[in-house]
User: Which sequence fits this backbone?
């Protein structure tokens, strides 16, 4: 018999897994404005360099360190038709798995997941592989992202060349 | 392969063309490895990366695995990362601090000055076994200029200072951003690769002509956030061949610079601090030089594969061929050593808006280079045109800086020496 606490834990786990799968779908479909709406106004989107997944972007050089404002410009840029690395948009497929809720306190949830993002372009198939850490907040029945930190496992962005789309 | 006919340089006719075999041929790449990468000074690293005794960084320079290390005696060395015994790599981590390096294959141990200090069963060797002869080999030439360390695999090369020629003055302008004259590579590396010939990044890094079409979205971002400074619609500046294939473009900054040119994106709270730094620079260097340090951008290529772009924040970028159609790139950020806290955070945030493989600009440069390489492979057109601005005073959006690179490339590949890398214009 599953205890009530365990049932609640599994339900939250399911909510988070459902949320990140939907997020992945929005990105694969290039529905970037809907994706951006998942973020709170104070949110951050960070991609550390491949040399140090733990890097603090206030003290170390990373790949991406966007506050909500710059993330908005990133989306605008990608939708403009002039972000040449992504126009026409590359085909992508995100597989997000191993979703784990690590902490739940009040309306705040810390969760982690493993990902593979495939990107297809110019007859090449490149993968980004890694772990993503989320800080989520419950707003009524919905979840929103306060922080998304994407840590790439590869030793270098080779042969990918750039993080031109959103991971 | 006829190496003399790959660059068509005819100032009188305004023609400058480069044969596209230079971008696709593995045979030419093999010749480049021998005639360029084994002969010229190549960037190794910055002294600030080795802050304490025993600090080391693993580096691959000119396709050779090296250890860049500060010994317990405080001396910075460049050692070949291969065991003198049977060849295994002795340093197997990218960075750290070590008193010794032990080869895991047969447990020979070297101190952080490279000296062989221990091996199992030394008595098995003949009398007269000389540890010194079996120590880690230092690269034959290793010199530095204002904290920038270079190596050269040719024992007979000219001194680094002579090789750098006019590039020294530009490195001075960058080093002088620090009020103590002390710059520091910020922690963190950007490592990526591009499916393009390595020389395309040398060209692209100093190419003012591509900025408007390729980086339209970046300029839109600047405009939208109020960061594009007024009166900068026309880029004013110059391009200069610095000697030995090095070149720079300099132009008045159309956007803010962490040292020391305030723009609205830095926030009102930063204004006073940035203006105080500017005043201090004026105090130390005089108005003209301070203006050049604080208010002007510069993109520099040091032949063959070091780029120092002081274009908002400052990036150091080096790149090396993997094969004719692919290169590895490593980029760092360099900043005045005295910057910390909010000031450093501001610089880091600013760096990432344009620069690096996740920035608003570099990915589109990567795409341009990929795209050129695809075009070359099609093999339908033999030559690329690099003649822009050949008949006028060179501007930053002309192509003198690339011609200077190619003139040195051609001289090196054909075993000749040049004394002038500018466009030979008829006397007025």
Assistant:
């Amino acid at each position: 018999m599953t205890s009530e606490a365990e049932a609640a834990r599994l339900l939250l786990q399911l909510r988070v897994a459902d949320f990140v799968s939907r997020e992945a779908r929005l990105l694969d479909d290039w529905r970037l404005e809907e994706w951006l709406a998942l973020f709170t106004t104070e949110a951050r989107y960070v991609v550390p360099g491949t040399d140090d997944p733990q890097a603090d972007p206030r003290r170390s050089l990373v790949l991406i360190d966007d506050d909500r404002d710059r993330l908005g410009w990133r989306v605008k840029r990608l939708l403009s038709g002039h972000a040449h690395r992504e126009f026409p948009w590359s085909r992508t497929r995100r597989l997000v798995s191993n979703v784990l809720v690590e902490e739940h306190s009040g309306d705040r949830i810390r969760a982690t997941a493993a990902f593979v993002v495939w990107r297809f372009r110019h007859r090449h198939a490149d993968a980004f592989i890694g772990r993503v850490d989320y800080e989520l907040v419950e707003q009524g029945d919905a979840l929103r992202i306060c922080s998304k930190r994407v840590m790439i496992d590869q030793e270098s962005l080779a042969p990918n060349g750039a993080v031109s789309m959103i991971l | 392969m006829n190496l003399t006919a790959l660059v068509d340089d005819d100032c009188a006719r305004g023609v400058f063309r480069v044969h596209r075999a230079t971008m696709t041929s593995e045979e030419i790449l093999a010749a480049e490895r021998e005639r360029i990468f084994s002969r010229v000074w190549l960037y190794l690293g910055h002294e600030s990366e080795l802050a304490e005794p025993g600090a080391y960084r693993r580096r691959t320079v000119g396709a050779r695995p090296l250890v860049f290390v500060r010994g317990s005696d405080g001396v910075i060395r460049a050692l070949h990362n291969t065991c003198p015994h049977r060849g295994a790599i002795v340093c197997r981590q990218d960075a750290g601090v070590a008193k010794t390096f032990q080869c895991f294959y047969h447990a020979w141990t070297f101190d952080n000055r490279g000296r062989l200090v221990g091996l199992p069963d030394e008595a098995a060797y003949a009398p007269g076994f000389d540890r010194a002869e079996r120590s880690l080999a230092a690269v034959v030439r290793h010199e530095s200029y204002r904290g920038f360390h270079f190596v050269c695999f040719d024992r007979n090369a000219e001194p680094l200072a002579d090789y750098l020629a006019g590039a020294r003055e530009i490195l001075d302008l960058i080093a002088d951003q620090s009020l103590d004259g002390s710059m520091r590579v910020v922690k963190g590396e950007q490592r990526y690769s591009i499916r393009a010939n390595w020389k395309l990044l040398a060209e692209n890094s100093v190419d003012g002509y591509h900025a408007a079409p390729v980086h339209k979205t970046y300029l839109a971002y600047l405009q939208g956030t109020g960061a594009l400074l007024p009166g900068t619609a026309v880029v004013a500046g110059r391009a200069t061949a610095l000697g030995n294939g090095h070149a720079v473009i300099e132009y008045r900054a159309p956007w803010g610079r962490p040292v020391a040119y305030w723009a609205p994106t830095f926030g009102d709270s930063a204004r006073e601090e940035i203006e105080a730094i500017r005043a201090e620079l004026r105090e130390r260097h005089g108005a003209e030089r301070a203006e050049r340090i604080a208010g002007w951008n510069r993109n520099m290529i040091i032949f063959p594969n070091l780029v120092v772009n002081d274009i908002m924040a400052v990036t150091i970028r080096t790149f090396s061929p993997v094969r004719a159609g692919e290169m590895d790139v490593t980029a760092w950020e360099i900043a005045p050593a005295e910057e910390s806290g909010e000031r450093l955070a501001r610089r880091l945030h600013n760096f990432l808006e344009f620069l690096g493989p996740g920035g608003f600009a570099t990915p589109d440069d990567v795409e341009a280079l990929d795209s050129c390489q695809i075009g070359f492979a099609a093999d339908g057109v033999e030559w690329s045109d690099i003649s822009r601005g050949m008949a006028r005073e060179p501007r930053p959006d002309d192509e003198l800086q690339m011609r200077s690179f190619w003139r040195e490339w051609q001289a090196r590949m054909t075993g000749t020496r040049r004394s002038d890398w500018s466009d030979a214009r008829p006397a007025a």
In short: The radius of gyration of chain A is 16 Å. Chain A touches chain B at residues 47, 49-52, 55, 57-65, 69-70, 73-74, 76-77, 80, 82-86, 122, 124, 155-164 (CB under 8 Å). Strands of chain A lie at 39-47, 64-67, 91-105, 108-121, 124-139, 142-152. The CA atoms of residues 8 and 14 of chain A lie 10 Å apart.
